[in-house]
Amino acid sequence: MSEHGLTADQIDTSTPHPARMYDYYLGGRDNYEVDRVAAQRIIKVMPSIIDGARKNRSFLRRAVRTVVGEYGIRQIIDIGTGIPTSPNTHEVAQELAPDTTVVYVDNDPIVGVHATARLTGVGHTAFLLGDVRQPASIIARAHAEGLIDFGRPVALQLVALMHFVGDADEPHRILAELRDALPSGSFLILSHATADGAPPQSVEPIEELLDVYRGTTASLHMRTRDQVLGFFDGFRLLDPGLVSVSQWRLDPGEEPTWTGLYGALGYKP
Length: 269
Prior knowledge:
Elements: H1 18-25, H2 33-45, H3 48-70, E1 75-79, H4 89-96, E2 101-106, H5 109-119, E3 125-129, H6 135-144, E4 155-159, H7 171-181, E5 187-193, H8 203-214, H9 225-229, E6 236-237, E7 243-244, E8 261-267
Parallel strand pairs: 1-2, 1-4, 2-3, 4-5
Antiparallel strand pairs: 5-8, 6-8, 7-8
Helix pairs in contact: 1-2, 2-8, 3-4
């Protein structure tokens, strides 16, 4: 039995999982051979994916610093968190405001095992096993367990997640349900994969990337800028709007590059 109440036969390490592949891109150690093999297939044809993952993580940190430091948000729900490779949301938020509550949510039991172990003894943090395709369940549990006060503004994070939700799962319905559960003054932090702006030589590597992810627990669905913009219905975008994650409020010394990921921060009036 694991720390998360799982038996060995309930934990599948035979199929690559995007969360663990992402951990590998970031230089983490919470991944398995099957994840590394899949990730290396992509890295071989698209080495820039490592830089893209790191730029995406930098975007997450900047967005968290913005909502906590500039807007006083003290509650964050991070859905599709993946392995909590450091520095993660709670570390960034609590460095600015130690009383910030962060609730991590992921649908991978192995992520749950690692997250629970990492967060043991860390105040104002929690982990829920849940699937973004069942948003009402996530909101209900966060409320019922006293983790999030939906009477106060919340920052919702969907970072590098929605591109693993196909159209058949109604991503706009998911976003609408999550948005409607948030009170005024809340924020949406979202990044999403795209082929917009990709150099011509990236066509074959992108096909290989999509093929690899079709063999994982979640296929990858790239979307255009207009399609990603639709996920922000009901939110006002903060400057500079929906841009490459490498261009969103850059830290000093950072250079904008093509990352294949859009990112934005939206405010719910």
